[in-house]
């Protein structure tokens, strides 16, 4: 399938009650008024009740309790679905380090269950939302997400399809830190400053990618509508040092007495994050100002033809150290657009 029309589609979102899921649903309803149905698949009943109320029992939303580990419920949930957004995962680095097998069961086995349920139900497009932690992984979370990417991309080539009857497209989208997602540093710093007027940081020289949730979700739609299957889309994200983030949060929510406590790296953390590795750069093309496309190492004529006129990415690797660096003023401007930060 060369292009996917989101309008008039039935959509399922795994992990749909999370931060990404909320914004994805909001923008789907705003930008695609003719979307037929959006199914929110997650395992937390309280979050589903809260989200149902937040969206005022919108008639196009259907809530399904289920875990990606449960293939039977996934099969039921995907009946008649056109597009799947796979967001469900155990995401916190320390949690995955401490609960290793749980991370494997959700992030690897769960992803394979999503793939198989999608194939069983002849879903047209399956989108895996991945993370910079999957590149040259240094922690278990990253390793499981790297496996998830491989499972998803290789599904385009590992199964026999009669393309006249059914030609699914599996793609991945890889992004860095999105401002305001559950457990991320900016809401944490705000809470610490309000409660104790001091924040805990790992290392001030660390750099981290930063993008608003709204911008990140908008980029996802570009990938969905333009991909043919087998691509890994990478967001061209700016970054900031932890020092810059800390200074800005103190400017916004602290005062001259605010303190910074240096804690050192946590297990599995990197000083700089990577979105395109040294090994991937030879297979990477500039799709637009906002996206790079990493093609699989498996040779595919359709993909080669699709991207033959795109320029190669002329970097040895793409990291939070060598990307565009946000200044304190730019970060302040970015944060002031985040309505959830200003109650």
Give the neighbour order of strands across the main sheet. 3-2-1-4-5-6-11-16-15
Order of helices and strands: EHEHEHEHHEHEEHEEEHEEHEEEEHEH
CATH homologous superfamily title of the domain at 10-175 and 214-236 and 276-315: NAD(P)-binding Rossmann-like Domain
DSSP E strands, number: 17
Shape: globular
CATH topology of the domain at 10-175 and 214-236 and 276-315: Rossmann fold
**Low-confidence segments:** none
Mean pLDDT: 93
Account of the 3D structure:
This protein is an alpha/beta fold. The protein has a domain at 10-175 and 214-236 and 276-315: NAD(P)-binding Rossmann-like Domain (Rossmann fold, 3-Layer(aba) Sandwich), CATH 3.40.50. Helices cover 37% and strands 20% of the residues. It contains eleven helices and 17 strands. The strands form five sheets. Strands 3-2-1-4-5-6-11-16-15 form a nine-stranded mixed β-sheet, sandwiched between helices. The model has no long low-confidence stretch (mean pLDDT 93).
């Amino acid at each position: 399938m060369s292009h996917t029309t989101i309008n008039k589609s039935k959509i399922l979102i795994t992990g749909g009650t999370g931060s990404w899921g909320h914004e994805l649903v909001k923008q789907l309803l705003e930008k695609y008024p003719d979307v037929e149905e959006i199914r929110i698949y997650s395992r937390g009943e309280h979050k589903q009740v809260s989200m149902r109320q937040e969206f005022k029992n919108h008639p196009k939303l259907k809530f399904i309790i289920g875990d990606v580990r449960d293939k039977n419920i996934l099969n039921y949930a995907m009946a008649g679905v056109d597009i799947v957004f796979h967001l469900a995962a155990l995401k916190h680095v320390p949690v995955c380090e401490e609960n290793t097998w749980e991370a494997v069961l959700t992030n690897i086995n769960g992803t394979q269950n999503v793939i198989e349920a999608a194939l069983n139900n002849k879903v047209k497009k399956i989108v895996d939302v991945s993370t910079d932690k999957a590149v040259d992984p240094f922690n278990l979370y990253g390793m499981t997400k790297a496996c998830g990417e491989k499972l998803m991309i290789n599904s385009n080539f590992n199964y026999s399809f009669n393309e006249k009857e059914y030609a699914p497209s599996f793609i991945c989208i890889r992004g860095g830190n999105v401002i305001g997602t559950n457990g991320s540093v900016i809401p944490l710093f705000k809470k610490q400053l309000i409660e104790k007027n001091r924040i805990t940081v790992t290392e001030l020289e660390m750099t981290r990618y930063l993008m608003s949730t709204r911008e990140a979700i908008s980029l996802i739609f570009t990938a969905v509508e333009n991909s043919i299957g087998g691509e890994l889309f990478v967001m061209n994200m700016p970054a900031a040092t932890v020092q810059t983030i800390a200074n800005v949060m103190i400017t916004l929510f602290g005062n001259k007495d605010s303190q910074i406590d240096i804690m050192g790296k946590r297990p599995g953390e990197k000083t700089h994050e990577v979105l395109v590795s040294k090994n991937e750069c030879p297979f990477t093309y500039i799709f637009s100002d906002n996206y790079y496309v990493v093609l699989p190492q498996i040779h595919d004529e359709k993909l080669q033809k699709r991207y033959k006129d795109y320029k190669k990415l002329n970097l040895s690797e793409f990291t939070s150290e060598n990307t565009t660096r946000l200044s304190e003023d730019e970060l302040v401007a970015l944060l002031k657009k985040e309505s959830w930060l200003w109650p």
